[in-house]
Amino acid sequence: MKIDYFKRKFACLLLGFLIALQSCVAYKDASSTLDEAVATNCKVLVVKTDGTVFKLIKVEQIDGIYYGSIKTKKGIEKIQLNESDLKRISVLDKTASTWGTIGIIVGSLGIVLLIVGSLVVDDMDIGLAY
Question: Cys bridge to 19: 57, 80, 107, 108, which one at CB 3.0-4.6 A?
Answer without folding.
Answer: 108
